[in-house]
Structures are given as C-alpha cells and as structure tokens.
Amino acid sequence: MVMQRGRGRGGMRGRGGPGGMKPRGPFIPHVPFDIVLAEPAFPPVRSIPGQVEEAFQAALVKRNQDLTPSEKEATALTNLVTKIQAVLDTLIVNPGSFDACQIEEVRQVGS
To answer: What separation, in Å, do the N-terminal and C-terminal C-alpha atoms of the chain show?
Structure first.
C-alpha cells in the first residue's frame, strides 16, 4: 500500500480539485425591466377616428349612468344600512336571548 499526501478519505473533495465544487458568480434574482430593450414588445399607439372616440365616450357615460343609483335609491340604501347598523350595535351591547353567535365587531365596507 502506497500512502499519498492529500489523498485521505474522500480524496480531494471540497478543495477545488477534481470532483469539487466550482465557484459561482454572484446571484442575480432577475433582470430589471428596461423599456429601451422592450420597445419592440410595445407598439406605438394609433389615434382612433373621431366618430369611434365619440361613440366610445357616449357608451362610457351611458354605462356610468346605468350603474349610478338615483337619489331615491341612494337614500333608501343609506337608510337600510343605518337600520342594520343600529340592530347590530344593539346585539353587541345587549344580546338578550340571541345566542346563535357572538358579534365582536361590525365595520361598514365601501362608501
């Protein structure tokens, strides 16, 4: 049996020799977005004809009017929310015989 220096158990592993790990470069998680390099992916915007723009604007206004409640509907909705809030506040303060669940907090969401 011949003894060789540096050839202990496992050979030269971990010392950068054969079979060892090679050093890596720095880790870069992603390439930052560059609008100059990505310009081909974003074609220039073309102007649209006046008739199409007017029709689109009219459709937007009509849709907005369809979705916006009238004053009467808004008032009725506000009154309903107020009544529900009052009932829930009463249940929080004095639950009485209401034992189906325990209400800790009530918050109004939206406008």
So the answer is: 88
Other CB atoms within 10 A of residue 85 CB: 13
Q: What is the spatial distance between Cα 92 and Cα 102, in angstroms, rounded to a whole number?
A: 8
Distance, CA of 104 to CA of 102 (rounded, Å): 6
**Is the model's pTM score more than 0.70?**
no
Q: What is the pLDDT of residues 25-66, one digit of tens each?
A: 888 778 788 888 888 998 888 888 999 999 999 999 999 999
Q: Which residues contact 103 (CB under 8 A, 6 or more apart)?
A: 88, 91, 92, 95
Q: Return the SS3 of 60.
A: helix
